[in-house]
Amino acid sequence: MKKSSFLFLSILICLSITACNKNKEPETSQALETASSQPSENEQKNKTTKEEVSPQKKSYLQVFNTVELSKDYKTKAHTAYLNTPLIFNKIENKGEENCRYMLVASNEAQFYTPDNFIFVESEENPPEIKRAVLKDPENMQGKPVPIGTIFKKSDVIYSGGTENYEKYDGLFYFQNNYNKFYKVNWNDQEGYIFGADLSEELWETDYSTEAIASVLYKNQGKLNDFYAYEGLKPLSDKVVVCLETDRLAIQKTAPKSWLSIDDLIDSYKEISKTTPIFITTDLFSHVQHLFFDKLLQETEEDYFAPCLFNICQNFIKAISDRQDIPHEIKEKAVAYFQVPELILRSAPKKVKDEDSWRNEYI
Tell me, what DSSP letter sits at residue 162? Predict the structure, then answer.
């Protein structure tokens, strides 16, 4: 009984060991299959190297795909103002016909009374030229005149003394500047203002020009409201009505004899800095057209033309070397490629000037 029990246990242990070995064998084979399916370290390096070396194609889609670009931009902010009435602020025209006006363009302008001057009379001077000498230029005291004040242009006072007049063209040396004094009427009192405190380039016969310039000087060059002006020139009544009713006005532009960049871009550049500019989509469409036109031009000049020239030359050589075709057919075939080859050969060479100022814009 003991022997049979021992034999039964021995058989059972052997079967258990065999079963364990059978269960482990599939795991080993599966591990080998997994290892064989994974590339070696060298293969991975070679694969990575090949992927990095392969060229990547350039895409110009980001330039022309305006649908994708438009997703990042919102254009509904202006809708809140579509029904807002457009009202231009009017500037009262206080000017007189055939009169010129002066504009105070300095914060240091002062009004000086006549008792600060000693007027000089001389038979050598024409009657229209008035000359004077300052009594005490170092201690002259005047009344401050606000910037943007408009005066009617009147008499001019030149510096007295023959030597001074000839040397400095009749200019006073005052407050570290050379200029003349101008007679004005301010607060119902006659007096004089030094020319260095006036904006001489804005002297106009039209009072409205000085009026809008006065607004700009008072507001440090900014317009806080809408004025019917384009720069310093007033808009016509027709344009104003169109802007108020239709929010859009079209003006004629004189033909240009010379362009610095492009007719549309030049028009924007010539607009006065004091004029608010509303940039519309036509400018972007125009620039996109110029970009594509330039891209096509450079592609033709730098790539297609040389390739076509080489193709023509290769065909001419290949046909000329053929001995198995009739002479008449060969001659016509060669002439067929000689025509474009001659046209391409006679084209002017492209010269790029690195110092050209146009390279910045074109």
Answer: H
